């Protein structure tokens, strides 16, 4: 994954119901309007995908102006002609430049072309890629199944190097790819997508497919929604339950680099990308995938070397520490969603080791300790959190709950003692009766004697 991270605060999207007023959930959530992962390559490249070419803007301006000054008879004709041209041009959406493939037979009718919207495999604009219904492709005999259920299929357009072994789980690969919906709207596009197989950087369809490809191979990949974005889709580009068709080329296969051998700047970049992928999964309520992504990010976000020494400047070490805190807080939130309470408590304490006054971690730690029955320590932690944020309602609510739990424990003990008092006088009376009976019996026996 080769891009600088872009982060935006979106805490409201994932608020934890157990802590409604705290800026909780995951830290600095990102807009997940990019590709199957955050875009590869420099940030500038990703931005260029969303820009309108100057020539296109000027062309529309000229067309609009010329249409306005024509007579009413020609006006309607020119408008229809302009609309027809625009319909043939490549479409866009808000997140990045979404495009439609052009029919080669009508290409000469389009005056302007958007260079950033060029297809990545122009020499492979085969019928399956441009117009064949997906239903036919799922049934086609010249396609091979990648999975036994027949919901993930491929057709090789150009074979790769058979001398190079297939990629395997845990290896890092680079692919060139673009994906379309059935109406051939491009929803994913990357000329150099880098990901590690098995770390959830991309959808399952891409991971499964690259393991079946040879280096250099170009293939068509048809993926049912269960191997893509499923029930949730990916707004606004990919609707729910949408199958996808990809063109893929496997450019490179290599072993995943050891994070401890990377420069600190690379560790920060990769760690942040893993964290943002975790945020993407968290927003989709895929908490297991989110937790895995945060754990991978924490493995990368370190200043340690193989020898156990610290490397990096003070500023870099501080930056790594800040990102580790974010990852740990996010991981604790995911663990709570998974009801892994012991793990969440351990993770929250790890945060406090790095930052003792982190309110989120204090709140979670106090709440988990309270739920565990360790009231004294929970009270100390929650009071510390309240001291830092005295106006936060969630902390007040949790403290009130803790006080009720403590008082409830005392009430229970008192309630158990009360029946004992009620029973004691009966026992005393019974004992007196027995004693009197024994005394009378003794006196009778004495008199007889």
From TrEMBL:
<keyword id="KW-0812">Transmembrane</keyword>
<feature type="repeat" description="TPR">
    <location>
        <begin position="325"/>
        <end position="358"/>
    </location>
</feature>
<feature type="region of interest" description="Disordered">
    <location>
        <begin position="1"/>
        <end position="74"/>
    </location>
</feature>
<feature type="transmembrane region" description="Helical">
    <location>
        <begin position="423"/>
        <end position="445"/>
    </location>
</feature>
<dbReference type="InterPro" id="IPR046357">
    <property type="entry name" value="PPIase_dom_sf"/>
</dbReference>
<dbReference type="GO" id="GO:0043066">
    <property type="term" value="P:negative regulation of apoptotic process"/>
</dbReference>
<dbReference type="Pfam" id="PF00254">
    <property type="entry name" value="FKBP_C"/>
</dbReference>
<feature type="compositionally biased region" description="Basic and acidic residues">
    <location>
        <begin position="48"/>
        <end position="68"/>
    </location>
</feature>
<protein>
    <recommendedName>
        <fullName>peptidylprolyl isomerase</fullName>
        <ecNumber>5.2.1.8</ecNumber>
    </recommendedName>
</protein>
<dbReference type="InterPro" id="IPR019734">
    <property type="entry name" value="TPR_rpt"/>
</dbReference>
<dbReference type="Pfam" id="PF14559">
    <property type="entry name" value="TPR_19"/>
</dbReference>
<feature type="domain" description="PPIase FKBP-type">
    <location>
        <begin position="170"/>
        <end position="254"/>
    </location>
</feature>
<keyword id="KW-0802">TPR repeat</keyword>
<dbReference type="InterPro" id="IPR050754">
    <property type="entry name" value="FKBP4/5/8-like"/>
</dbReference>
<dbReference type="GO" id="GO:0003755">
    <property type="term" value="F:peptidyl-prolyl cis-trans isomerase activity"/>
</dbReference>
<keyword id="KW-0697">Rotamase</keyword>
<keyword id="KW-0413">Isomerase</keyword>
<feature type="repeat" description="TPR">
    <location>
        <begin position="359"/>
        <end position="392"/>
    </location>
</feature>
<dbReference type="GO" id="GO:0012505">
    <property type="term" value="C:endomembrane system"/>
</dbReference>
<dbReference type="InterPro" id="IPR001179">
    <property type="entry name" value="PPIase_FKBP_dom"/>
</dbReference>
<dbReference type="GO" id="GO:0005740">
    <property type="term" value="C:mitochondrial envelope"/>
</dbReference>
<keyword id="KW-0677">Repeat</keyword>
<dbReference type="GO" id="GO:0016020">
    <property type="term" value="C:membrane"/>
</dbReference>
<dbReference type="GO" id="GO:0044183">
    <property type="term" value="F:protein folding chaperone"/>
</dbReference>
<dbReference type="InterPro" id="IPR011990">
    <property type="entry name" value="TPR-like_helical_dom_sf"/>
</dbReference>
<keyword id="KW-0472">Membrane</keyword>
<keyword id="KW-1133">Transmembrane helix</keyword>
<dbReference type="GO" id="GO:0005829">
    <property type="term" value="C:cytosol"/>
</dbReference>
């Amino acid at each position: 994954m080769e891009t600088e991270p872009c982060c935006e605060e979106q805490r409201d999207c994932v608020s934890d119901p157990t802590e409604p007023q705290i800026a909780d959930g995951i830290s600095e959530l990102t807009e997940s309007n990019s590709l199957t992962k955050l875009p590869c390559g420099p940030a500038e490249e990703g931005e260029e995908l969303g820009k309108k070419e100057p020539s296109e803007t000027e062309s529309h301006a000229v067309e609009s102006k010329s249409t306005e000054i024509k007579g009413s008879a020609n006006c309607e004709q020119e408008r229809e002609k302009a609309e027809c041209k625009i319909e043939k041009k490549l479409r866009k959406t808000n997140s990045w430049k979404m495009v439609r493939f052009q029919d080669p037979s009508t290409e000469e009718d389009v005056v302007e072309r958007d260079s950033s919207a060029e297809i990545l495999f122009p020499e492979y604009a085969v019928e399956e890629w441009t117009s064949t219904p997906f239903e036919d492709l799922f049934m086609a005999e010249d396609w091979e199944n990648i999975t036994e259920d027949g919901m993930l299929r491929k057709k090789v357009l150009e074979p790769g190097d058979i001398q190079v072994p297939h990629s395997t789980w845990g290896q890092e690969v680079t692919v060139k790819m673009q994906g379309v919906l059935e109406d051939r709207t491009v929803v994913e596009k990357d000329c150099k997508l880098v990901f590690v197989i098995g770390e959830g950087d991309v959808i399952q369809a891409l991971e499964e497919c690259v393991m079946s490809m040879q280096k250099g191979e170009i293939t068509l990949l048809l993926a049912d929604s269960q191997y893509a974005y499923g029930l949730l889709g990916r707004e606004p580009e990919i609707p729910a339950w949408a199958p996808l068709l990809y063109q893929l080329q496997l450019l490179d296969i290599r072993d995943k680099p050891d994070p401890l051998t990377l420069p600190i700047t690379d560790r920060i970049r990769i760690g942040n990308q893993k964290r943002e992928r975790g945020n993407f999964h968290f927003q989709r309520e895929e908490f297991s995938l989110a937790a895995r992504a945060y754990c991978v990010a924490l493995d990368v976000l370190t200043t340690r070397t193989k020898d156990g020494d610290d490397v990096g400047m003070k500023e870099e070490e501080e930056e790594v520490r800040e990102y580790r805190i974010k990852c740990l807080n996010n991981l604790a939130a995911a663990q709570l969603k998974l009801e892994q309470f012991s793990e969440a408590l351990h993770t929250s304490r790890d945060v406090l080791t790095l930052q003792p006054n982190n309110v989120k971690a204090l709140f979670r730690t106090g709440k988990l300790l309270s739920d565990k029955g360790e009231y004294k320590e929970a009270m100390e932690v929650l009071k510390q959190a309240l001291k830092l944020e005295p106006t936060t309602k969630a902390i007040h609510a949790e403290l009130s709950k803790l006080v009720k739990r403590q008082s409830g424990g005392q009430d229970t003990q008192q309630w158990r003692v009360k029946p004992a008092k009620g029973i004691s006088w009966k026992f005393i009376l019974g004992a007196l009766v027995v004693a009197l009976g024994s005394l009378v019996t003794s006196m009778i026996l004495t008199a007889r004697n």
